[in-house]
Design goal:
With 79 residues, this protein is mainly alpha-helical. It has helices spanning 6-37, 41-68.
């Protein structure tokens, strides 16, 4: 039975995450175009709600690596 290595699993997860990011960015671009091209206020408001949710998800995903990054503060003695 084939068992993928940890390295191949990591490479695959990066590809999947990259694809998910591109899909979300494509969705954001599409929603922006719809907002600009939609003449009716009610429809535009619905699209803006979707766009807001997509932007929040994009921000959440962008922050994730920063939250996992640990910073060690160097403590120095007072001189």
């Amino acid at each position: 039975m084939y068992r993928p290595s940890a390295q191949s699993c990591e490479m695959l997860s990066h590809r999947v995450l990259g694809l998910m990011e591109r899909r979300l960015e494509d969705r954001i671009r599409k929603l922006c175009a719809e907002v600009v091209n939609t003449p009716h206020t009610d429809q535009r408001d619905e699209i803006i709600v979707e766009l807001n949710a997509a932007l929040r998800e994009h921000i959440r995903r962008a922050r994730r690596p920063l939250l996992e990054f640990s910073i060690q503060v160097e403590r120095r003695s007072a001189s």
